[in-house]
Amino acid sequence: MEINMDLKGKTALVTGSNSGIGLGVARELAKAGINVVLNSFTDSQEDHELAHSIATEFGVEARYISADMSKADECRDLITRAGVCDILVNNAGIQYVAGIDEFPVDKWDAIIAINMSSAFHTTAAALPMMRKAGWGRVINIASAHGLTASPYKSAYVAAKHGVVGLTKVTALETAREAITANAICPGYVLTPLVEAQIPDTMKKYDMDRETVIREVLLERQPSKEFATVEQLGGTCLFLASDAAAQITGTTLSVDGGWTAL
After folding, report:
1. Are residues 57 and 100 in the same domain?
2. Helix H or strand E segment including 109
3. Structural domain count, the chain
4. Catalytic: which of 64, 96, 152, 156?
5. What is the 3-state secondary structure (H, E, C) of 76-93?
6. Do residues 175 and 200 share a domain?
7. Does residue 202 fall inside a structural domain?
8. pLDDT tens string for the chain (261 positions)?
């Protein structure tokens, strides 16, 4: 049987996609001819211009839809407003670092809502669309912290472990259909947010840039190289393709060997 890698004409909705990993994924999908729906909570002119620029650059349909991923009704309404969702990429996430006994309750609630519960709500709304279309892909951007843990990141680690569990359940509930659900677990990814942290870290440890990257930021990443947003987008493309039709309910680590330790 010939493997069809052509996804042109499909529509992908990527949450949290006006910057960083989400934007990188959306761009790689658009480059492959997939129509994209961008999302964030900001709803600025720049957000809509970003969608327009992607549409112009890659010759696809691209829209921006605002939705607050901390609110269940807005998560579900996002899918409804999109109208079609062949490929759902749950990417929205935030981070906060503190010890368990000092962790602010509002930060815990926000991280669980945005990083984990939003994926439940968007998936619940998207599955009926996928079933009606007879095809679908749910791709959850989890983390190496969905498979292992670090101190002072209780909410993030709990949420990402939850995303991995949700992915498995979604896969089991759709196993007899042409729908798959998988989680990508990145290690450290070079995004504008990470890039902005490097100068301050250099000052803090009195190190040059390369030493900070190798010994501080990538301490747990054996490759000593960042993953890129383009690599994550390529992984999403693979999972959406027919080559991955029998890959479901699992995790793909893009972490330079972190979770092999």
Report:
1. yes
2. helix 105-111
3. 2
4. 156
5. HHHHHHHCCCCEEEECCC
6. no
7. yes
8. 678 778 999 999 999 999 999 999 999 999 999 999 999 999 999 999 999 999 999 999 999 999 999 999 999 999 999 999 999 999 999 999 999 999 999 999 999 999 999 999 999 999 999 999 999 999 999 999 999 999 999 999 999 999 999 999 999 999 999 999 999 999 999 998 889 889 989 999 999 999 999 999 999 999 999 999 999 999 999 999 999 999 999 999 999 999 999
* Token couple for 78: 């996002």
**Does residue 181 form part of some domain?**
yes
Q: Say if 75 falls within a structural domain.
A: yes
- Residue 156: active-site member: yes
Residue 200 belongs to what domain range? 190-224
47 and 163 both lie in a single domain: yes
Q: How many of the other CB atoms lie within 10 Å of CB of 100?
A: 10
pTM exceeds 0.90, yes or no: yes
Q: Two tokens at 158?
A: 């709990």
